[in-house]
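step: validate -> pass
step: tokenize input -> pass
step: predict -> running
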Amino acid sequence: MTTTTPTTHSTTTPKTTFHPRDRLARSVRFALVKGKKADCTKLFNAEVLPTLCKQDGFSDELLMVQDDHVVGVSLWYNPESLKKYAASVYPRIAQLLSPMLSGKAIIETYELPTA
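step: predict -> pass
step: emit ->
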């Protein structure tokens, strides 16, 4: 039986609800090369999460890994910060991840509705 192990990371404490200022969610999905799950998790904790936490407008990250499938969802306060990250920082992250990827990452951005 396969189980999903969601891992949430935060600059303070894990959140159970969206902060009212969270406006965007960015999803990055990809398949891992077989046997690279531990390497991916290590890279995420050592490089990806600390880099995200330094970005203006970044709110939180949720990483979900099941077998060789990964979904990362980052929350952002504003589109400008997300665009800046996507253009100037994510290419380096993608390069670090590339030896572990089986195929291309699928990236989608969602607006979060406000109440």
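step: describe -> The chain has one domain: 21-111.
step: cleanup -> pass
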